[in-house]
Structures are given as structure tokens and as C-alpha cells.
Known about the structure:
The chain has helices spanning 14-48, 53-57, 60-71, 75-100, 107-117. By secondary structure, the protein is mainly alpha-helical.
Amino acid sequence: xxxxxxxxxxxxxxxxxxxxxxxxxxxxxxxxxxxxxxxxxxxxxxxxxxxxxxxxxxxxxxxxxxxxxxxxxxxxxxxxxxxxxxxxxxxxxxxxxxxxxxxxxxxxxxxxxxxxxx
Length: 118
């Protein structure tokens, strides 16, 4: 033995577990609300910005998130970048599904490929 002491970690208390669970539920509920309100506004945003479905899927949100995550050495901007990156990726999938289904003759094949990639 080297004489080094080993630290024993205490198990989290019930109160800590409950607080963590509530915080997790709150965050997921917030993201769900944000996602549901965003996806219902997609047609309006697309019309206002005069974009086609493919261009709408490439919104600045994802690029900004990747840049913040990759180029910032500190924790705060990297965390914000990962959130923006995740939001952009999560919002890009439904938009790409919509774009794939625009042409009825080839919609089934396109949507199946997009689903496989997603």
C-alpha cells in the first residue's frame, strides 16, 4: 500500500434526488414547449423569410451553435453553443422531413432516407 487515503462518496439524499428530478423535468418541459411552439410557426417563418424548405432547414441556429461549441475554450459559451447546436439539429429534422415530402411522387423514398439518416 502506498498510504494514500481513499475518499468515500456519500450517496445523494432523497431531497437531492428529488430536486434533480424536478430540475430535469422542468428543463425537458421547457424544451418541449419551445419545440412545439417553434414547429407550429415554421410555415409562417418560411413565408416571412421567403425561404424554401431546404433553406429553412439550414438555419443559422445550428451553425452558430457549432461555432460557439468549437471555438470557445470557456465553459459558458461552449454550453450555450451545445444547446444551440442541439436545438438546430432537433429542428432541422422535422424541416427536412417536410421538405422530403413536398413532392408526392417521390415522397415515400425521400422520407425513408431522411428517417434513416435522422
